[in-house]
Amino acid sequence: MKVASRIVIAALAVSALIAPVRAQEYFGDFRPDAPELAARGSLPVGVRTLVAEHADQLDVLHYSDANPDPRYTRKLTLEVWYPAILAAGQNEHTVYTDVLGAGPNDPARPNTPFQFNGRAARDAAPVAGRYPLVIVSHGYPGSRLQMSYLTENLASKGYVVVAIDHPESTRADKAGFASTLLNRRLDDLFVLDSVAAWAKRGSGNFLAGVADAGNTALIGYSMGAYGALNTVGAGVSAAAAAYVPGGKLAVNQQGNKDYESRRDARIKALVAFAPWGGAHKVWDAQGLAGVRTPTLFITGDQDDVAGYKDGVVRIFEGVVNADRYLLTYQGGRHNSAPNPPSPAMWSSFDDFQSYSEPVWDSRRINNINQHFVTAFLGIHLKAQPLQPYLDLPPLAADGTIKPDPGLWKGFRKRTALGLEWRHLPAR
Question: Which of 202, 219, 203 is nearest to 137 (CA)?
Answer without folding.
Answer: 219
